[in-house]
Amino acid sequence: MKPVTLKDIAEQLNISVTTVSKALKDYPDVSKKTRGLVRELAKTLNYKPNTFAVNLRTKESKTIGLVIPVIVHHFFSNVIKGIISQAEKKGYLVIILQSNESYELEKKQIDLLLSQRVDGLIISIANGTADFNHLNEVIAQEKPIVMFDKIAKLVKCSKIIIDDRKAAYTATQHLIDIGCKRIAHFRGALLPQNSIDRFLGYKQALIDNNMPYDPTLVYICELGDKSFEEGKQNARQLLQDHDDVDGIFINTDLVAIGAMTEFKALGVKIPEDIKIVGFSNWFMSSVISPTLTTIDQPGYKMGKTAFKQLFKEMNAIKNKKPKKPKIITLETELIKRESTKS
Amino acid sequence: MKPVTLKDIAEQLNISVTTVSKALKDYPDVSKKTRGLVRELAKTLNYKPNTFAVNLRTKESKTIGLVIPVIVHHFFSNVIKGIISQAEKKGYLVIILQSNESYELEKKQIDLLLSQRVDGLIISIANGTADFNHLNEVIAQEKPIVMFDKIAKLVKCSKIIIDDRKAAYTATQHLIDIGCKRIAHFRGALLPQNSIDRFLGYKQALIDNNMPYDPTLVYICELGDKSFEEGKQNARQLLQDHDDVDGIFINTDLVAIGAMTEFKALGVKIPEDIKIVGFSNWFMSSVISPTLTTIDQPGYKMGKTAFKQLFKEMNAIKNKKPKKPKIITLETELIKRESTKS
DNA sequence: AAACATCCCGAAAACGTTTTCGGTAAAAAC
DNA sequence: GTTTTTACCGAAAACGTTTTCGGGATGTTT
């Protein structure tokens, strides 16, 4: 009933534990004959090495930690899938924790993962995070850490991102190209780098096209669990504040969908009255009515890339050849749909 | 640079490792004074117990495994969130793997988790799974396992489910109540219990209302990654086969949304020409047009309940008082929306 | 003063693996 | 026939923790 150990195999074959271990790990100093015997018996007894012991001995867990702001989220669940699939290929398992966009929780989760002694960390930081000591501590411990999407510019680690600024610029330019004269922006929270960058891209596009930048046209969403509601609220507010807006670039599809729902309810026609561009290309955006123009953000690929990079760094550290951080930028694409039909 | 161990603390205080360990774990046979000293030093040195050693010694990992068919999925990501949040409260971490609806992969993933020596398993079985030996083996190893949603009736373990049959009955009855005379059903794959039960509920409702059951009105979807496409295909096929259908009960919202998209493209009006009820209450269903009537399936709660049950069983096994399996049925609710407006 | 209980501490074994280092025997070289 | 190489094996230490058990000191009861 008890799990089979090296000792059990050794005793049955009348050889030492050492030899059994070596036989199973293809050490050169064990004869073909005994290697064969060990292999065979191990198989019939269904021997599985005790991970706890292996971990203790080798000081690695073949496990990585993943901290994300939200789990029920199209983009993030794609990232999760990408990370897990890639990790599996390399024999790593993934422990997932959620920060819920809170700095305190994020800190706690990272602590938890470190005390579990994961071999590496992948993280997309919370909206609430402005202080990065908890992240720098990870690096100080020589644990590799890779950030994706929502990164902290000041932390020296590898990052997998998109060019948010460029993508936002493209989105806004698209609105301008199809004739919008007064374009609003629903931005994300104030702290996250990507929401800053998307805002800057929006602003730059206006300036480059000789259109005035009007701060009152910029609305803030905290995102998190209530994105949809925020979209509705901002849409209502926008109509009250400015009746001349004919285009909006919105930080996230879910917010955009909330806004569209509200506009529809209030009798504002899309795209006739207001044209809308979202961000992320949630699946939903292709099935709602009207379908939503958006920026495709490659979540699955981002996850895969993040793990690949982490894997390289974990190996580099094992071989005492730590690498310098790398920033990988993945391509995005403007997906034109009905919400910006001219 | 190296992590602090009990030994380090012991040496600095000139006491034994034993005493340090006991002091930190509130053993009664250590004086208040030394306990205080140990505690203090542990804190200043930022001592974190080495999980690998603890695991090896205690034979538990405080980690559970979760195997689900798909990750990028509204229902399942809600379950994930529920499990993780509850596990965290009890000091457990969660390792997630995806079976991709494949029996082979499911088997492999379970093996992986067992060799990682997780303390328990939560699983929703794949469409492709017809043989349950891999699950019975887990039970034979005295590892608790809890199934949810897609269960195997024949495996003796706890299960968290909804009453699929009743829910499907309610959904179909609703279509009948609003005047549908000829109701089709897009069912799930042939093997999964819940897709069987939903089909049976549909059939029963017809019979109880003296409506003929017509097998040619039942279409099969394999689900998995291509649910949306299957919905479209089946919708097209249905129109060819039967031009008199005025209502459809569909196994999953995503398939229903695919069908609605196709109907819209083909000029079939919903709910005027055909009324539709989905299943699961994906968020999407409340924002598409027309909004989709569906059965709300409490994913988050299911996840929480599943972990709670697993937790009980893990403790029971630790205390050598194994419990008998429990089947917990959660309530569902019919959410009436535009797709069945009469 | 002897007997007993109480309080505190530490030695040692155990969990199962990996890896270093020596050692013995047989084969090869001189 | 002696030395050197090669092939194979095992003892032992180590990873860091937990827990059992015994024992010494101090205090309390006869």
UniProtKB/TrEMBL annotation, chains A, B:
InterPro entries: HTH_LacI, Lambda_DNA-bd_dom_sf, Peripla_BP/Lac1_sug-bd_dom, Peripla_BP_I. Residues 4-58 form the HTH lacI-type domain. PROSITE patterns: HTH_LACI_2. One of its GO terms (molecular function) is DNA-binding transcription factor activity. Keywords: DNA-binding, Transcription, Transcription regulation. SMART domains: HTH_LACI. The keyword Transcription regulation applies. PANTHER family: HTH-TYPE TRANSCRIPTIONAL REGULATOR GALS, LACI-RELATED TRANSCRIPTIONAL REPRESSOR. This is LacI family transcriptional regulator.
